[in-house]
């Protein structure tokens, strides 16, 4: 059986994504940086210390338009600065799942989307659609449904009017 987390680097280098929008590409890059930081966190450095060298390494290896690079960096910095708060929100809405036990891809797709739900005016449907697409592309078979369910619950709370 294949590990869902192994898809992140393989899919990223497999060629262009089905959706080529600058913001979509930025989210893919941000996900890869967050994933790499998550896997490297046991090396003693903090997430904040790791973000710049990992970001540079990812940008060097993939074609990223300048606008996507800037938006991606904003996402990564915002998520790293608020990771505990984002994980707390996820923990409340991911019933029967501890954030630390989620697959790394799913956890970081969710962090990215929850950050956008809480700190942007991007429409809920767009945030969820983008996150489900990332989960489909980089996660395991159950990832899209899992991400969709958690984000639906989060969106009802953080975007309730």
**For the residues shown, what is the average pLDDT?**
84
Q: What do we call the CATH homologous superfamily?
A: NusB-like
CA radius of gyration is 14 Å
Shape label: globular
- Report the CATH architecture: Orthogonal Bundle
Protein structure class: mainly alpha
As for the number of domains, it is 1
**How far do the termini sit from each other?**
44 Å
> What is the count of helical runs?
8
CATH class division: Mainly Alpha
The percent range for strand residues is under 5%
Strand/helix succession = HHHHHHHH
Task: Describe the secondary-structure layout.
Layout: H1 7-12, H2 22-40, H3 47-61, H4 66-81, H5 83-93, H6 104-119, H7 124-138, H8 143-158
Helix pairs in contact: 2-3, 2-4, 2-6, 3-4, 4-6, 5-6, 6-7, 6-8, 7-8
What do these coordinates show?
The chain is an all-alpha fold. The protein has one domain: N-utilizing Substance Protein B Homolog, Chain A, CATH 1.10.940.10. It has eight helices and no strands. The longest helix is centred in the first third of the chain and has 19 residues. The termini are far apart.
Note the main attributes of this structure.
single chain; 161 residues; mainly alpha; N-utilizing Substance Protein B Homolog, Chain A; 8 helices; disordered N terminus
Quickly describe the structure.
The protein has helices at 7-12, 22-40, 47-61, 66-81, 83-93, 104-119, 124-138, 143-158.
């Amino acid at each position: 059986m294949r590990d869902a987390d192994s898809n992140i680097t393989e899919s990223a280098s497999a060629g262009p994504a089905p959706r080529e929008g600058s913001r979509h590409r930025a989210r893919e890059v941000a996900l890869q940086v967050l994933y790499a930081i998550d896997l490297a966190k046991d090396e003693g450095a903090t997430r904040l210390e790791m973000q710049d060298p990992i970001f540079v390494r990812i940008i060097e290896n993939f074609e990223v338009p300048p606008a996507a690079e800037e938006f991606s960096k904003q996402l990564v910095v915002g998520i790293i600065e608020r990771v505990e708060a984002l994980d707390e929100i996820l923990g409340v809405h991911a019933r029967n799942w501890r954030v630390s036990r989620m697959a790394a891809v799913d956890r970081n797709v969710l962090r990215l989307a929850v950050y956008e739900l809480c700190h942007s005016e991007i429409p809920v449907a767009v945030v969820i659609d983008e996150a489900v697409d990332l989960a489909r592309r980089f996660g395991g078979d159950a990832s899209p449904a899992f991400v969709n369910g958690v984000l639906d619950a989060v969106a009802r709370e953080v975007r309730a009017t």
